[in-house]
Design goal:
The chain is mainly α. The chain is built from 17 helices and four strands. Strands 2-3-1-4 form a four-stranded antiparallel beta sheet. It is globular. It is found in: Cell membrane.
Length: about 525
């Protein structure tokens, strides 16, 4: 395949990425077939609208409970083996559902339970799957790789339901579950063939709850990641009105059929594919920040068109534009989320992004559904367009990060701390102090620089931080921060990146020349246990 580096197809030159991409398309097609088959099967098991709606709830609910633990697990275990385990779990669930349905043994609660298990597998898979992309392609090809992944999802969404409809009408829903199971085994085969290169671990792996706390601290202290999350919330909350209200527009406003609805959905997928072909050039010329801004404005115009136009054929080009705008925003935000964080916390950061995405879509869909039911569909769409336009103001404050991969590489410049023989490295907490000698005339500028240092300490593991000045000698400043344990402090050493060297250097620039910064480490003392009966 002869393609340039700026081509949207250039990541397909990487063998492992190419096969994983093809396998993921097959798996996503199987997932959409499962959605159709499960929904249709529930209508034959129960006439209750609540039970039919619960199928969708069971498939998406685990995302809100498992995404964050899944991100933590993906960062502390081998991603390949982790993904193999999750894919095998989902294949077993799909196979069991297919067999029970074929034998006529499926009940309402059994279907909901197995759908819940399938949704749990999806929630466990997504952060790890997203975090593998930077390992498969170079940094220059990462935007194109993320775009291709989004294209694959849109292709699956267009093809999967159509195939499922044919299979259900000819054979029955059990075959959609069986095809879904086969699609998981295709992914398993590619993962087995992947020879993932890993660096030997110097320290023991993090524990799950400790990894969750570290991920939360990083997300709370990382401004680049917070900018991505803010822009995602500003877009998806308003943009969710388009897809959530489209079925009502086709059936209620246009008096259309399922075929008409499928046509408009297909246009969304085609628009996404066509838009993906131009994304690399547009991103290179405009930059991600401006591209997301323009695509958000375009999607607001799409919502206005959906509110005002009531002709199916006029909506066809509108939905083509919606697909192009959607993939431009989605791929740009995903790339920004992946490149804004170092590798040690990438899956956890992506889990937070995925949670914001699904939460925004769920909250937005509920909000616009309520507005449409109380007022009208056009009014809800116009309100969503107004909110989307108002969300563009977020671009003035939250700029998408542009981070070089070298800046996120571990600096490893801190000298190894010394632990005296006989002391337990699991003792907690560890207090680290740094003594500075600062000219009083530079004190204000020094404190401003130390605010950036505070953020660096907190996102890399510090559970507390403070900067104080000596009451007797105004030149003396003491910075101290607390890590959970000696082992966590060693991890703190490994997490500091090359980009953060600049933050540290900017603060140490105010240190008086020829006077070294004194660094000390303190462990919490242990009192001898009190003897029984002693007062």
């Amino acid at each position: 395949m002869s393609v340039s580096a700026s081509s949207p197809w250039s990541p397909l030159r990487q063998t492992t990425f190419r096969w994983l991409w093809l396998a993921s398309i097959a798996s996503n097609i199987g997932t959409w077939m499962h959605e159709v088959g499960a929904g249709w099967l529930m209508t034959s098991l129960s006439a209750s609208p609540l039970n039919v709606a619960l199928v969708q709830v069971a498939g998406s609910l685990p995302m809100f409970f498992l995404a964050l633990p899944a991100g933590a697990l993906a960062d502390i275990v081998d991603k390949r083996r982790y993904l193999l385990g999750v894919q095998l779990w989902m294949a077993v669930v799909a196979t069991l559902l297919a067999a029970l349905t074929l034998l006529g043994l499926t009940s309402v609660w059994l279907l909901l339970t197995l759908t819940l298990c399938m949704g749990g597998g999806t929630a466990l898979m997504m952060p790890a799957w997203s975090a593998t992309t930077p390992e498969l392609v170079g940094k220059d090809e990462l935007p194109a790789a993320v775009t291709l992944s989004s294209v694959g999802v849109n292709l699956a969404r267009a093809v999967g339901p159509a195939i499922a409809g044919v299979l259900v009408s000819l054979v029955g829903p059990w075959l959609t579950f069986a095809v879904n199971a086969v699609s998981f085994f295709a992914v398993i085969a590619v993962l087995l063939a992947w020879r993932r290169e890993t660096e030997p671990a110097v320290l023991p792996a993090e524990r799950l709850f400790g990894a969750l706390r570290a991920g939360w601290r990083y997300s709370r202290s990382s401004r680049p990641l917070q900018a991505v999350l803010a822009r995602a919330l500003a877009f998806f909350l308003g943009a969710s009105a388009g897809m959530s209200l489209l079925p009502l527009i086709v059936r209620g406003e246009l008096q259309g059929s399922a075929t008409d609805f499928g046509l408009l959905l297909g246009c969304v997928g085609i628009g996404a594919v066509l838009g993906a072909a131009f994304l690399p050039r547009l991103r290179e010329q405009l930059g991600s920040d401006c591209l997301v801004l323009l695509a958000s404005l375009l999607y607001a115009l799409v919502l206005i068109a959906l509110a005002l136009l009531r002709d199916l054929y006029l909506l066809v080009p509108v939905m083509l534009l919606s697909g192009a705008a959607w993939i431009a925003v989605l791929s740009s935000l995903q790339v920004a989320a992946q490149t804004a964080v170092p590798s040690w916390v990438r899956a956890r950061a992506l889990a937070v992004y995925i949670l914001v995405f699904f939460g925004s879509m769920a909250a937005g869909g509920t909000l616009w559904g309520l507005v449409a039911s109380r007022a009208s569909i056009p009014f809800a769409l116009l309100c969503a367009a107004a909110l989307l336009a108002l969300g563009l103001l977020a671009a003035l404050r939250f700029h998408l990060p542009v981070t070089e991969a070298e800046d996120l590489a571990p600096s490893l410049h801190w000298p190894a701390p010394i632990l005296a023989e006989g002391l337990d490295r699991e003792r907690r907490p560890v207090v680290v102090t740094l003594e500075y000698d600062i000219d009083p005339q530079k004190a204000v500028a020094f404190q401003q620089a130390m605010e950036e240092v505070r953020g660096m300490r907190r996102r890399n593991g510090a559970i507390s931080w403070c900067l104080v000045q000596d009451s007797e000698n105004p030149r003396q400043w003491l910075e101290f921060f607390i890590d959970e344990s000696w082992l966590e402090h060693l991890r703190h050493h490994q997490r500091v990146t090359r980009g953060e060297l600049k933050i540290e250097a900017a603060a140490r620039h105010f240190q008086t020349p020829d006077i070294d910064i004194r660094i000390r480490h303190y462990l919490k003392g242990r009192l001898a246990p009190e003897r029984p009966g002693r007062k």
